[in-house]
Amino acid sequence: GQSLEQPSEVTAVEGAIVQINCTYQTSGFYGLSWYQQHDGGAPTFLSYNALDGLEETGRFSSFLSRSDSYGYLLLQELQMKDSASYFCAVRSMDSSYKLIFGSGTRLLVRP
Amino acid sequence: SAVISQKPSRDICQRGTSLTIQCQVDSQVTMMFWYRQQPGQSLTLIATANQGSEATYESGFVIDKFPISRPNLTFSTLTVSNMSPEDSSIYLCSVGTSGRPTYEQYFGPGTRLTVT
């Protein structure tokens, strides 16, 4: 089976940098993804790490270390609109490519 | 990218009844997925809807409770059968983009179900 653990809640101030961690136990996966979900909205894709290392997309960066069973999402120059829930997810190695989601982190950005 | 619509957007149903949720995608996709998300919780995969064959269900979910149809490459339905208040949740349809280096899954807006 697979389990992905995240902190339940993180609070940060506008303009700051925040890191959301994801530790996982899984028998194998293709890559680690991150999704953002605003209240009442659908999850939207942020980033994908197929390999170990850092992927940067604008203000968002994501990191994966398979040897440490660990990844994180880094959000820079926080804005109020970044207040949302963030989920890590692993892509399964079977032919379905299904995503299994982590427990989720609620980020609150304060002025 | 893929644009996904779901119907209904929300419903209030009585226990013991069934509700069928429709998912329409604007392009042909191989894999469609159904997730459940209870308020404040993560997304739990119910099943993978395969075109031309039976759906593949995750542990804890059975076909009798959540029958799924997938008549073509752009459409799927999920039925929540014999509902109880524990089935109150948001049900999300999703499609994947297999074969691309950056794997993304797109989600529909969800169906908010309340069972009384």
- Coarse morphology of chain B: globular
Order of helices and strands of chain A: EEEEEEEEEEE
Low-pLDDT runs of chain B: none
Radius of gyration of chain B over alpha carbons?
14 Å
Largest sheet of chain A: 6 strands, mixed
Number of helices of chain B: 0
Q: Got a strand count of chain B?
A: 11
Cα end-to-end separation of chain B: 37 Å
What is the string of SSEs of chain B from the N terminus onward? EEEEEEEEEEE
SSE-based structural type of chain B: mainly beta
Descriptors:
heterodimer; A: 111 residues; mainly beta; 6-stranded mixed beta sheet; 56% strand; B: mainly beta; 7-stranded mixed beta sheet; 4-stranded antiparallel beta sheet; 0% helix
Structural account:
- The complex is a heterodimer of chains A (111) and B (116).
- By secondary structure, chain A is mainly beta.
- Helix content of chain A is 0%, strand content 56%.
- In chain A, strands 2, 4, 5, 9, 10 and 11 form a 6-stranded mixed beta sheet that branches.
- Chain A starts with a strand and ends with a strand.
- With 116 residues, chain B is mainly β.
- Helix content of chain B is 0%, strand content 51%.
- Chain B has strands spanning 4-7, 10-13, 19-25, 31-37, 43-50, 56-57, 68-72, 75-80, 89-96, 105-107, 111-115.
- In chain B, strands 2, 4, 5, 6, 9, 10 and 11 form a 7-stranded mixed beta sheet that branches. A 4-stranded antiparallel beta sheet of chain B has the order 1-3-8-7, with no helix packed on it.
- In chain B, strand 4 and strand 5 (43-50) form a beta hairpin.
- Chain B is globular and about 40 Å long.
- Chain B starts with a strand and ends with a strand.
- At the A-B interface, strand 5 and strand 10 of A face strand 5, strand 9 and strand 10 of B.
Layout: helices, strands, pairs:
The complex is a heterodimer of chains A (111) and B (116).
Chain A: E1 3-5, E2 9-13, E3 18-25, E4 32-37, E5 44-49, E6 53-57, E7 60-65, E8 70-75, E9 84-91, E10 99-101, E11 105-110
Parallel strand pairs in A: 2-11
Antiparallel strand pairs in A: 1-3, 3-8, 4-5, 4-9, 6-7, 7-8, 9-10, 9-11
Chain B: E1 4-7, E2 10-13, E3 19-25, E4 31-37, E5 43-50, E6 56-57, E7 68-72, E8 75-80, E9 89-96, E10 105-107, E11 111-115
Parallel strand pairs in B: 2-11
Antiparallel strand pairs in B: 1-3, 3-8, 4-5, 4-9, 5-6, 7-8, 9-10, 9-11
